[in-house]
Each structure stands twice: as structure tokens, then as C-alpha cells.
Specification:
single chain; mainly beta; 2 helices; 6% helix
């Protein structure tokens, strides 16, 4: 068994953050440093704990990191854990990818991926240890780890339909997300009257519930690609 990355495409999910309808409002302020903690559930049963952090890295760059550790069921028995670390710059008030590292450990086995962006050459290089894959970058591009943050920023700007160019293993895909409703959500951090966002251009994807103006990342997130994983916010602190 493996633990899926915390946020799959979106969550394998740049962000032009294109508005597909309605005129944009004034750009929202970029988020400050924070630490968020989540419970991770699989099929409704506790499976792990996740920590998401945003920190300045100097030189106008930031590091956004997601770590998950298996604490229940088979994930705990296998000592399963994942870590995703993204380095990006703010461009036009939204994140633009510079690099991304993914590492998974389970039952003594390791899996990793390293992505770098050379903006001078407009080129993305992805290496999983079997030789690099090289393809063209797109302005405003993010990768799957920072995509939920990019969506949260777009919601703060009042956007309802969002287009994200997301760098994957072999290419950049333009993925579409939209507000599909407002729902009351109960998570360990409390009850929220949240905005629900779903991927709108694929049968399998994810659903995320946001509290715009309060947190830049979801209070709850659920993936629909077979893993049946859910993340629920436990705490959020700005630093």
C-alpha cells in the first residue's frame, strides 16, 4: 500500500489562473507563512496525519511543503510516509513553479520525483530515476502540490471558474476547476460554511471545500481516483 500525495492532480494537479467568466476583482494579497495540520482518512477510517507549511526562502522565493505520515491501519504497519516540497515565486500575485520534489517511503521501499523549471529556456525537466523527461513550460505554471494553494488564491480574488496549467510527469495539462456549491462542513478545526470546488473537465478528480478570506488552502479535500482519501483541517496558524 502507498499513501497518495496529499493533493493529487490538482492533486496530479500555472497558473494563469484564467478567469473563464465574469471580470476579476482586485488581486488578493499573497498569503503569509503558515502551518496547517490535517487528519487523513481512508474510507472514513483514520489513516494518517498531514502537515502543510508555507515559508519564505529568500530572494522572492517560497517553499510550500506537504508531509503525510501513516498512523493507522496498513499505512502504519508499513511505515508509510510521503513528503512533497515545492519552491515557487510570486508572479502577478500567484505562485509560479521553480522546482518540486516528491518522496514516498513504504515497507522499506522508496519512490521519488524531481521537477525543475528553467524559465530562461522555458523548459521543464522531470526525473524519477529512470532518465529525465523534458517538455515545454507554460507561463504561470504550478505543479500538483501547490495547485490547491493557487485555487485558494483565485477564490480570494472572487473567481468562480479557474484554469490551471499544471506540470505533470510528461507534460503540462490545462485543468479546469469551478465552484459547484456552498456547503456546511464539519472538520476537527470547526464548522465552516464553505465553498465547494470540483474539477470540471474530468470524471475523476477531487473535491475541495474552502473558506475564502480565512484560509488560503482547503478545510477539507477528497480525492475520487480510487484512493478514497479525505483530508480534514485540524489547525491553522500564521507565522
Amino acid at each position: 500500500m502507498t499513501i497518495r500525495p496529499a493533493f493529487v492532480p490538482v492533486l496530479a494537479t500555472a497558473l494563469t489562473l484564467g478567469l473563464l467568466c465574469a471580470a476579476p476583482r482586485a488581486a488578493a494579497a499573497t498569503p503569509t507563512a503558515f502551518t496547517a495540520r490535517y487528519d487523513v482518512l481512508q474510507g472514513g477510517a483514520p489513516m494518517g496525519k498531514a502537515t502543510v507549511t508555507l515559508r519564505p526562502a529568500g530572494g522572492g522565493e517560497w517553499i510550500y511543503r506537504t508531509e503525510i505520515k501513516g498512523t493507522g491501519g496498513l499505512a502504519a504497519l508499513l511505515g508509510a510516509s510521503t513528503a512533497e516540497s515545492s519552491r515557487f515565486r510570486w508572479k502577478g500575485g500567484v505562485p509560479e513553479a521553480i522546482s518540486y520534489d516528491y518522496r514516498m517511503v513504504a515497507a522499506g521501499k522508496h519512490k521519488q520525483r524531481h521537477l525543475t523549471v528553467d524559465w530562461n529556456r522555458n523548459q521543464v525537466t522531470v526525473d524519477e530515476g529512470k532518465g529525465p523527461q523534458i517538455f515545454a513550460a507554460r507561463p504561470g505554471m504550478v505543479e500538483r502540490n501547490t495547485a490547491p494553494l493557487a485555487i485558494g488564491i483565485a477564490l480570494d480574488e472572487g473567481r468562480k471558474n479557474i484554469a490551471l496549467p499544471i506540470a505533470g510527469r510528461h507534460d503540462v495539462q490545462l485543468q479546469h476547476f469551478g465552484i459547484t456549491g456552498r456547503e456546511s462542513v464539519d472538520v476537527p478545526a470547526g464548522r465552516f460554511h464553505a465553498i465547494r470546488v470540483d474539477r470540471t473537465d474530468a470524471a475523476l478528480g477531487f473535491s475541495a471545500w474552502y473558506a475564502p478570506g480565512r484560509y488560503p488552502i482547503p478545510v477539507k479535500l477528497s480525492q475520487h481516483d480510487g484512493g478514497n482519501l479525505t483530508m480534514e483541517l485540524v489547525s491553522f496558524s500564521s507565522k
